[in-house]
Amino acid sequence: MDKIKLRSYLLNALFALAGYAILHVLLESGVINAYYRGVILLIGINATVTIALNLATGMLGELCLGHAGFMAVGAYTSALFTLNSGLSGYIGLILGLLCGGLLAAATAALVGVPALRLRGDYLAIITLAFGEIISVLLRSFAFTGGARGLNGIPLLTNFPLVYWILVLTIVAVYMLIRSRHGRAILAIREDDIAAEASGINVTRFKMTAFVISAAIAGIGGGLYAHYIGILSPNKFNYNYSIDYMVMVVFGGMGSITGSILSAGTLTILPELLRSFSDYRMLVYSVLLIILMIFKPEGLLGQKEFSQRFAANLMRRLTGRKIRSAASYDRHELSVARETTRRARERGYLTEQGPGDLGVGGRRRRPEENIPVAGTAVAESEGRTLTRQGLDPGPYEPAERKGRR
Amino acid sequence: MLFFVQLINGLQLGAIYALVALGYTMVYGIVKLINFAHGDLMMVGAYLSLFLYTSGLPLYFALPLAIIGTSVMGVLIERVAYRPLRNASRLSALITAIGISLLLQNSFMILFSSTPRRFPSVSEHLPVFVLGTNRISFMALLTVLFAVGLMLLLTAFVHGTRMGKAMRAVSEDMRAAQLMGINVNRIISMTFAIGSALAAFAAILYGFSFQQIDPYMGAMPGIKAFIAAVLGGIGILPGAMLGGFLLGIIESLTKAVMPAGYTQLADAVVFLVLILVLLFKPSGLLGQPMREKV
User: Fold this and answer.
1) CATH classification (class only), B2-280
2) Which sign, positive or negative, has the C-alpha torsion B93, B96, B98, B100?
3) CB-based contact, A326 to chain B, within 8 Å
4) pLDDT by residue (tens digit) across A67-87?
5) Do A251 and A165 reside in the same domain of the chain?
6) B32 HSE (CA, 13 A, CB side)
7) Residue in B96, B107, B279 closest to A288 by CB
8) Does A321 map to a domain?
9) Which range, of A312-321, A369-378, B73-82, B180-189, averages the lowest pLDDT?
10) What are the extents of the domains in chain B?
11) Which domain holds residue A354?
């Protein structure tokens, strides 16, 4: 493995461990009291589900209005598993969570197959209907406890479990999105027709992203069940799905960092403003409309807080050059240097930073082109040379016209 | 005989779905947007007609006023929320529609509380048909007649007038229509106005048929009306009507067959219909499979 890559993995693992250690010490020493402990667990669970929904909505670009339904499937399955399997403690819980995730994934496949084969917004309506139906079904069956729901679920969800499942979710979704499959998913979001024309099996990748998203939501539901201890079919309603949708949209569609931040904010705020709880959905609805009209990509857009971002920030703040951690940076840099060298030999020359076209929409504009002093071109044209020959000029995204 | 009664009930319910579905289908046909707020416009219509009716205005004055009010509301929503997003991505427009739907539901919930309100009944003024041992309310027949009549009127409008021709042109190709000198914004406003008026009609019929309205009454009929529109073939007016009636009949027959206490499962059956349609005939019963143009 590449040395820089290894270093970056180790650094990430270190950060995750440090975050865990700090919170763990704070919780154990009693600095954070039981109430806030509960809030922290809820933030962790909500962040997990928000990242899951972000995968389907922000990264794949399909509106999904039934994640509460998938959570319900996961919650009921894992709760029934821990209540009836006889396996005690964490083995039972983890197996239950896995079952919940799997069943949620299976349900998602069932719901997704008819909708995702087609172009259009069928997934939105089919998941909306699914979310409504699932609570009807839960209310009708005897084994799910009918309208009373399930009681006495062991309260097994604790901080380490929530924390590491969240970390695992972040790692899984991030790695998926940075992989070949992930690029296919992002390509579908950008333009499904172009993606299909490029040989991407659109239906397959839509299904992959949607099913993974539902599976994670199912696991989140299982965590929730063992956090709250009682399940009622009314809990997992349409508004609950909308809560997560607002978290995704508010944080930034396509940004994992945004999902975590907004899950944190939008979990704490309603707790603080309990007396205004009647107005919560009203505020959410206005927030959605205003965000869509003025900042449709959400607060963070597709930005992430990564080592590369941190390195850039440090460089900007201190003026010092810090080696960026991501390995492809180095590769790109060497390609760019080689290109520059060749171009300089031939005499078209402009000096510019490497134009970065990384996946995920992070594009650096090349610096302004300045002819390199001493070359024939610079002498003949003075400093006026800006765009010529092979240099395509600063990258500018074409404005998209028309509804897709 | 029970079957016959359920059939009438289904037709009555289906007529309401059909009217809402007509609005869905028109808006979808023109701006290619699932207007999630459409079901909630029906709720707005119901509240408006209730307030105007109970304020002492005569029936023939109160109801048209309510319909006009809902219509204005629909146009306003399009103007304020959807128009700025016409060139934005589809996802943004959909999320805005969800936002509008939530806004309507929750503002009405806060203003008028979530307890259901009684809608005045007119059935005592209407004759009752007796068929064998069954009584069939005149309201059911009236509802069906109204729905079919409005659908025919709408079809005549869309196919027989200049305005209707412009609407069809815009739905076929918005930019080409604009180049031909059609005022696209006006046509879209018009579509929203007509769609919302139909939703208000549906609301009045719903109120008189079921006598109970609440801020969330639009949500489920909204979904079902959309399913009806897809079933009939989205963008096709007679398709929406056919889908609405079929869905109403399916729902009420399922309710009759289900054992007591499980009648809510009829919703699941309606959902199943959607899945089956999308699997086997996504273009709907009356639709032609269309090739995607790029």
Assistant:
1) mainly alpha
2) negative
3) no
4) 999 999 999 999 999 998 877
5) yes
6) 19
7) B96
8) no
9) A369-378
10) 2-280
11) 329-392
